[in-house]
Amino acid sequence: MFRSAKYLIAYLVPALVGFSLFTRGIWSYTTLMVLFGLVPVLEQVLRGSDRNLTEPEEQRVARDRVFDLLLYLNVPIQYGLLAYFLWIVTTQVIAPYEWPGLILSMGISCGTLGINVAHELGHRSKPYEQRMAQALLLTSLYLHFFIEHNRGHHKYVATPLDPATARYGEHVYAFWWRSIRDSLRSAWHLEATRMQKEGRPVWSPANQMVQFMSLQVLVVALIGLVLGPLAMVAFLAVALVGILLLETVNYLEHYGLLRRELRPGTYERVLPRHSWNSNRTIGRILLYELTRHSDHHYLASRKYQVLRHFDESPELPGGYPTMILLALVPPLWFAIMHPALETYQTRWAQPIRG
Fold this sequence. Notes:
There is one protein chain. The chain is mainly alpha-helical. It contains 16 helices and 2 strands.
């Protein structure tokens, strides 16, 4: 029971977002202050554990439906928060200094409850779980992630062919542009290829990119028509924050790591050493074990509650919230990450330059 109960702490994120939206004023920045102020400090104290579950524990936990329900609840919560945010924007007078706090708070919800939980559900095989993943991605207007992440990123991660693998020496702002642009291109290419193999026209209604992009345009248009242009712009703003939060996480998860090229265009299989890991306790729980990213890429079908630590996985110098903040200041990021990369390369004799 304790193993599932600890993930109730993940609901701190929507609770903070709801508090920020409800209280407004200077308290609209509560989500930002706690997740990117208090949590990084606490993670320096609570550094976490590299302990893995025993095989009997893992089998028992993997079958426990409570862990799935904890994910599913994020769907109505996320939509409830978004509806409340749009209601505030439409009906309330908002002071200029409140806008950044409200947008960042709701945007953080889009990136964590939205894209992060969708990431976990999108790897599941049950159709209804995949539909929930798509519903969550819609709140950040990033539905193409469902295609590109599963069929592109996991295939090409830690290679020059992957838009979401940050190159050595590439700063996060250049990465944002490249990853967003090229992941869209990759998702379209993947679906166009699928259509051609099935003997359908590329612009077929069966093309998921056509479905997803049409749905996103429709949602934005409906918000603008029903709630007005201010609500539409506010929705686009929080979606952008969610997207940039995701892409910053992408940036730190594989920065500078490369798989060996066995022959032109063919790479060694993905191993735990091809993703940065973090065992920091708070980040692990708040992000449903996303920070044990090495095992996720090693075996994407593993559920979040049974992800493992590997000694060969490179360990981030800090937890995810800390590393996100560092990434936003490239000189600090390079000063901290490049020595970590060099230490890792020396220990495991791995290539690091992308």
